[in-house]
Design goal:
about 375 residues, alpha+beta, seven-stranded mixed β-sheet, 10 helices, about 60% helix
């Protein structure tokens, strides 16, 4: 996939009159963040509405329109499609959002989908935004879904470097790619910090760490889906440098962005692998802890059984003399051996013999 050539002339009249656009009290379209016209890298006007932008661009044959939209309505996108001959499939994607990062060519117009990201430090979460970019010979349209990225900074940067802006819409596309990729750096730092904290929590035995690992793994997968396609997209852009005569300075800038994307993509791949390993280690540690607890319970049960054996043995030993004493303690008139002179010594010896016998039996069985 390659950048479009700026040498092809733009048609002077639209195929059909654009639909009227609803304006606010200030006269600008509700979803239009900013619409500006540039010539030779310098701003010449900031029209108040889309229809004004279309008209003034026709009056500036060597000009370039840069239109920024945020969650536009279908009516607004259809007016842009009619004016700039945007492909209906690209317009449909821009309306629906939730697209994967991609770069597609429709005639002399490029359609680029980017996933911007920002790290929310308070919530320790990664917030993803979606950006759709239409790049034509003399226009660039951005459609944002979400707060990121902040393209106002990109516009200011390009306006401060008119020599770069003079290179046309492809230079603006470079600046947007650069801003999106630069926005990944704080996210990488935030995720790395979270992983470091998780490693500490894992070895500290925090019971809530498993949930945190899972949530961060899910965000890392989403981050990976946002960054990995950019590597191929930028390589496709660079492949068209010679064919489309891309300015050498712009080539260097795009190569630099491609290097950053490759580095970030490798870091994100490393995060996912690290989280997988941490999850495995955490599962092992949890299993070891559970085994230790089970072993402790088993040992406690064994010790309890030993105590029960001792108590039961002494209870049986003490029960024997109690039984004999109970029998001879009954107050009946007609009872054998009541008048026997050796009855008492016999009873005592019987109790002592039974107790001694039971003691040695339990001792031999290690109950005592």
């Amino acid at each position: 996939m390659t950048l479009p050539s700026r040498k092809r002339g733009r048609r002077q009249e639209p195929a059909a009159p654009p639909p009227a656009v609803t304006t606010t009290a200030h006269g600008t379209a509700g979803s239009v963040v900013e619409a500006s016209l540039y010539r030779d890298g310098r701003k010449v006007s900031s029209p108040a509405s889309l229809s004004d932008t279309f008209r003034r661009l026709r009056e500036e044959p060597d000009g370039m329109a840069w239109i920024g939209l945020h969650r536009p309505s279908e009516e607004e996108l259809l007016s842009l499609a009619a004016e700039f001959d945007l492909h209906e499939l690209a317009v449909e994607d821009a309306l629906e959002a939730h697209q994967r990062p991609k770069l597609e060519r429709y005639g002399d117009t490029l359609f680029v989908v980017l996933r911007a990201a920002r790290y929310m430090d308070a919530q320790e979460e990664v917030d993803f935004g979606e950006l759709h970019v239409f790049v034509g010979p003399d226009f660039l349209i951005t459609v944002r879904h979400g707060p990121a990225p902040d393209l106002s900074a990109v516009r200011l940067r390009m306006e401060d470097t008119p020599e770069l802006l003079a290179l046309g819409p492809e230079a603006v596309l470079y600046a947007i790619l650069d801003a999106v990729v630069d926005g990944y750096a704080p996210v990488v730092a935030g995720v790395q910090n979270d992983i470091d904290e998780i490693e500490t929590e894992v070895f500290r035995g925090d019971p809530a760490v498993s949930r945190r690992i899972y949530e961060l793994s899910r965000e890392t997968v989403e981050f990976q889906r946002a960054t990995r396609p950019l590597v191929g997209m930028l390589h496709n852009l660079m492949a068209g440098f010679t064919k489309y005569g891309t300015d050498e300075e712009l080539q260097r800038h795009l190569r630099d962005v491609a290097d950053h994307v490759t580095h970030i993509s490798e870091r994100v791949d490393g995060f996912r692998q690290a989280l997988t390993e941490i999850l495995t280690v955490n599962a092992t540690l949890v299993s070891q802890q559970q085994n230790a607890e089970m072993r402790a319970l088993a040992e406690a049960g064994f010790e309890q059984n030993e105590e029960i054996k001792k108590i039961s043995s002494w209870a049986a030993i003490l029960f024997a003399p109690t039984l004999v004493g109970t029998v001879y303690g009954m107050n009946f008139d007609h009872m054998p051996e009541l008048h026997w002179a050796g009855g008492y010594p016999f009873a005592v010896l019987l109790m002592a013999g039974v107790c001694t016998s039971l003691y040695f039996v339990f001792k031999r069985r290690d109950w005592l």
